C-alpha cells in the first residue's frame, strides 16, 4: 500500500497545543509561522487506526467496558516482532500517557526531597515532573564526542550523594536522537544497581530508528536488572496519537508491578476504550507497514533539512540515528542563544524547542520537529538560510 505523508492539514483553531499556543509561548504567529516544537507529526495517523475509530463510532455505543485482551495482545505482538522483546501481557499496566507514568513513578517509589537522576541534555519534561513533585534533580551531563554523545559514568557517580532513589533514562535519546548500544545500556543498568536506583527507561521513540541502527529494549540488554526496571512505551509518537493520553508501563518484577497497580487502583484509573481500540489497530501488520513508510519519509526530511541547515556557516545539525527531532548546534555562529533564537523566531518565523530547556549541554542548540510534509521542511530550510544570510 502507498501512503502519503505530504498532506498538509490546517490544525489552527483545533485545540492543537502545537499551533494554538505557539504565539503565546514563542511569539510566532500561526498565521505565517512554522510550528516545529512539540513532538507530534503534521500528517494523519495510519489508515488502519482511523478505520478502527470509524468502526467504533459507527457502533454508536460508548458505555462501560470490561477487559480488553486485544490491546494487550497487540502490545505483546509489537514488542516481539518489532523489537525482539518477549513480554508477558501480565506485565503491562496502562497510564494516562508517559508523562503521567513518570509522575506516578515518582509518587510511588520516592518521597519529597529524594534525588532523581537524569543524563542531560534530555527531554525537558523529566525535569519538570521532578520539580513539580518536590524531588531533587540530579543532572549528569553526557559527554559530547564529535557529532554524538557518550556516557561519563565516573562523572555521574561523583554527583551522587546516596539520597537518590530513581534514574530516569531516555532510550532512544531525546533530543539528540542517539541510539544506545547494548553495552551502554548494560552499563546504565549496572550504574543503577550499584547505586540502588529504580531504573525507569522511557522508550517512547523506539520505533523511529533509521536504517543502520538497532534499538535494544533495556530489558533485553540487561535482564538481570529487571527487579528494579520499569519500561515506558507508547504508540503516541509513532502513530501521532498523543492526544489519546495512553501509555504502557511494562514492569517484569511482580513486587514493583503490584505497588503501581495498587496506586492505579486507589486512583480508580481505567483507560479510555477508544484509545485502546486505536492502539490495538496501530500495533498490527497494517500499522507496521505504515510505520515503515513513515520512517522512509522522515529519512528524506532529515536529509533535506540537514543539507539546508549545514550550508549555513557555523550551524550544524547532528546526524540523527533516531526520532524526528533534529538537534541543531548554533555555537559556530559565535552568537549567544538569545541572538540566534531571535533570528529563528523573528526573521525565519519558526518556533523550535529551545535547547537550554533540555539542561546542561543544550545552551547552544535548538530542537526542530521534522515530522511534516516535505514542502514544509524545504520552506523551513529556506527560511533559516535567509535568516542567517549575512553569514554566507
Query: Total number of helical segments?
Result: 15
- How would you name the CATH homologous superfamily of the largest domain? Type I PLP-dependent aspartate aminotransferase-like (Major domain)
Q: Percentage of helical residues? A: 40-55%
Strand order of the largest sheet: 2-10-9-8-7-3-4
Write the element-wise H/E pattern from the N-terminal end onward.
HHEHHEHEHEEEHEHEHEHEHHHEEHEEH
Summing up helix and strand content along with how strands pair, one would put the structural category as: alpha/beta
Query: What is the name of the CATH topology of the largest domain?
Result: Aspartate Aminotransferase, domain 2
Rg, please? 21 Å
- Integer tally of domains: 2
Q: Which stretches are poorly predicted, pLDDT < 50 over at least 5 residues?
A: none
Note the gap between the termini. Answer: 43 Å
Largest sheet: 7 strands, mixed
Amino acid at each position: 500500500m502507498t501512503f502519503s505523508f505530504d498532506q498538509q492539514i490546517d490544525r489552527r483553531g483545533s485545540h492543537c497545543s502545537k499551533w494554538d499556543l505557539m504565539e503565546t509561548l514563542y511569539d510566532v504567529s500561526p498565521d505565517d509561522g512554522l510550528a516545529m516544537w512539540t513532538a507530534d507529526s503534521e500528517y494523519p495517523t495510519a489508515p488502519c487506526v482511523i478505520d478502527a475509530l470509524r468502526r467504533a463510532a459507527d457502533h454508536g455505543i460508548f458505555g462501560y467496558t470490561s477487559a480488553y485482551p486485544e490491546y494487550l495482545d497487540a502490545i505483546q505482538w509489537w514488542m516481539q516482532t518489532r523489537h525482539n522483546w518477549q513480554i508477558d501481557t501480565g506485565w503491562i499496566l496502562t497510564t494516562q500517557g508517559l508523562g503521567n507514568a513518570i509522575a506516578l513513578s515518582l509518587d510511588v517509589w520516592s518521597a519529597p526531597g529524594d534525588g532523581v537522576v537524569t543524563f542531560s541534555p534530555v527531554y525537558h519534561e523529566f525535569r519538570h515532573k521532578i520539580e513539580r513533585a518536590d524531588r531533587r534533580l540530579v543532572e549528569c551531563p553526557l559527554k559530547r564526542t564529535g557529532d554524538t554523545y557518550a556516557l561519563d559514568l565516573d562523572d555521574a557517580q561523583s554527583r551522587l550523594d546516596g539520597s537518590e532513589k530513581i534514574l530516569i533514562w531516555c532510550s532512544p535519546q531525546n533530543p539528540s536522537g542517539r541510539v544506545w548500544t547494548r553495552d551502554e545500556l548494560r552499563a546504565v543498568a549496572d550504574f543503577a544497581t550499584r547505586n540502588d536506583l529504580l531504573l525507569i527507561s522511557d522508550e517512547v521513540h523506539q520505533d523511529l530508528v533509521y536504517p543502520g541502527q538497532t534499538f535494544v529494549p533495556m530489558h533485553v540488554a540487561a535482564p538481570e536488572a529487571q527487579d528494579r526496571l520499569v519500561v515506558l512505551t507508547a504508540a503516541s509518537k509513532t502513530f501521532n496519537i498523543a492526544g489519546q493520553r495512553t501509555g504502557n508501563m511494562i514492569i517484569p518484577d511482580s513486587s514493583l508491578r503490584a505497588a503501581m497497580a495498587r496506586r492505579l487502583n486507589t486512583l480508580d484509573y481505567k483507560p479510555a476504550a477508544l484509545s485502546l481500540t486505536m492502539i490495538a489497530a496501530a500495533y498490527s501488520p497494517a500499522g507496521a507497514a505504515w510505520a515503515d513508510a513513515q520512517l522512509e519519509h522522515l529519512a528524506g526530511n532529515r536529509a533535506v533539512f540537514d543539507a539546508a541547515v549545514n550550508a549555513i556557516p557555523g550551524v550544524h545539525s547532528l546526524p540523527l540515528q533516531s526520532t524526528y527531532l533534529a538537534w541543531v548546534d548554533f555555537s559556530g555562529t559565535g552568537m549567544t542563544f538569545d541572538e540566534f533564537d531571535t533570528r529563528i523566531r523573528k526573521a525565519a518565523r519558526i518556533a523550535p524547542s529551545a535547547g537550554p530547556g533540555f539542561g546542561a549541554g543544550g545552551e547552544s542548540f535548538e530542537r526542530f520537529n521534522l515530522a511534516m510534509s516535505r514542502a514544509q521542511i524545504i520552506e523551513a530550510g529556506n527560511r533559516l538560510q535567509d535568516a542567517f544570510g549575512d553569514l554566507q
